[in-house]
Every structure is written in C-alpha cells, then in structure tokens.
Design goal:
By secondary structure, the protein is an alpha/beta fold. About 45% of the residues lie in helices and about 15% in strands. InterPro entries: NAD(P)-bd_dom_sf, SDR_fam. This is SDR family oxidoreductase.
C-alpha cells in the first residue's frame, strides 16, 4: 500500500471532502488522525474507516487555535512516533455573488485572514515536527480562482492565491530538510456537501451555475471528491517524492480554458 506505516492528520475531516481524503489515506495504508471542531462528524468518519478495516482516531481540534494544534500534534507524535502527512481542509464562510466594488471590507477580508491563519498554524506546526524527522508532506487545497481571475468570488479568490504562494514559500524553506509542501487546486466537487446542499435546495439558478462551472473546463466536467482524494494519496506517497513547491491543477482544465469559452471548434 502506498502510504503504509504513514501517519496522517486531516484537519476538517467531515463527511464531505475531508472525510473522503481521510478514507483514501486509510485505504492506502495510513493511520489517520481526523480532526474537527465538533466530535460527532469526525467520530463518524473515524468509525467508518475502522469498520472498513483501516486505522483512524478522532479528536476535537480547532485549527485556528495554535495551542490546540500543537497539543494534538504532540499527542500524535507521542502515540504514533511521527507525523508524515498534514492536510488542512477546514471550511470557512465566504461571502460571494457580490461584486467587489459593492462588498464591505469585513466581508472581503475575513476569508483571507481566516484561511491564512489556519494554514499558517497547521502547516508550520507540522513543519517544525517534520524538520526534526527530516521527512513529511504538507498539503493544502485551493480552487479555480487561484489560477485565473474569476468573478463574484469575493475574498475567496485572493485567499486561494495567498495559500498557493504560502505553500511555495514554505516548500522552499523546508525542502533542505526533506519535507515536501504541495497545493492541490480543484474546481469544486459536485458530490461534496456544499454542492449537494445547493442541488437539493431546488433553486432554479443552481443547474445554470453548475453548467457554467463545467463549461469553464476543458473536459466539460468537474472533479469528484475521489479525484482530489486520490491526488492527495499520490502526492503523499514516494511516487511523488520529487514533487514540491507547486500547485497541482485538478480542475479538469479550468485554469487555461476560461478565456476560450466563446470559441467553438467543430469536431470532425
């Protein structure tokens, strides 16, 4: 198994994307430590992993609290011996669908500040431990606005760009110690809870919005949670041992496709 004998911490391991990543890590052989601000959802993820034959432990950890993150990380090291993978997948409330010129300062700044704080806290905590080990992988996740200008996403777009820049900078500092830092860029997964909740709301604008997202990609589809989870497994494995300091695009081609949406190329 690709991640056998590895210990992985997943922050924000709910029953959506964080849970999907945790399950993928476990199937690949990792011992997974799933965390969140509420015990019930992370306990369910851990229990499902164990029921499927994997190894998982759940804990309440506020990924915006440096002391809580450090205490949990020390506990993992004490019990498991190392932290080999750290992946921050917490969700943040973002005000969107408002033009930037009509947005309040607080609505714009809050996601930028919150995302950067939590990624700094969890990534640097993991980095300090991994430097001692001289090994490890730190992962983060952004979305399409990290690669292109995308309208009506408020502070989320700058947040994605900031996370990607932070990931590159951290990779350059930790690389000499054998620690890799990689970001995954997704276009959003239609089988994740934010999308499913929107679909189930039966709001008339939702199908149009999903069609737009799909049409903005080269492949005319969106990545599923499994696509992101499988990418995370690969990046955490020795197969990706020379990959660091980059953002791996798993948007089905959104980054380069958007500017060409108005062009129609007939198929022959």
């Amino acid at each position: 198994m690709m991640l056998q004998h590895k210990n992985a911490i997943v922050y924000g391991a709910s029953d959506s994307l964080g849970g999907a990543v945790a399950h993928a890590f476990a199937r690949a052989g990792a011992r997974v430590f799933v965390t969140g601000r509420r015990m019930e959802p992370v306990q369910k993820v851990a229990a499902d992993i164990v029921a499927a034959g994997g190894i998982a432990e759940a804990a309440i950890v506020d990924a915006l609290d440096p002391e809580a993150v450090e205490a949990h990380l020390r506990q993992v090291v004490d019990n498991a011996g190392s932290v080999d993978i750290s992946f921050n997948l917490i969700g943040v409330e973002v005000q969107q669908n408002i033009p930037l010129i009509d947005m309040t300062l607080d609505d714009f700044v809050v996601p930028v500040k919150t995302y950067m704080e939590t990624h700094f806290i969890t990534a640097t905590a993991a980095g300090r431990q991994m430097v001692k080990q001289r090994s490890g992988v730190i992962l983060s996740l952004t979305a399409t606005p990290g690669g292109i200008g995308y309208p009506l996403v408020g502070g989320f777009g700058p947040s994605c760009c900031a996370i990607e820049s932070f990931s590159r900078g951290l990779a350059s500092e930790l690389g000499p110690y054998g620690v890799r830092v990689v970001n995954i860029r997704s276009a959003g997964s239609p089988d994740s809870h934010p999308f499913l909740d929107a679909i189930n709301s039966n709001a008339p604008e939702v199908p149009l919005f999903l069609d737009k997202l799909k049409n903005d990609t080269m492949l005319k589809t969106l990545p599923a949670m499994a696509d992101i989870a499988n990418t995370a497994v690969f990046l955490s494995s020795e197969m990706a041992g020379k990959i660091t300091g980059i953002t791996l695009d798993v948007t089905a081609g959104t980054t380069a496709a958007l500017n060409y949406n108005m062009m129609t190329i007939p198929l022959k």
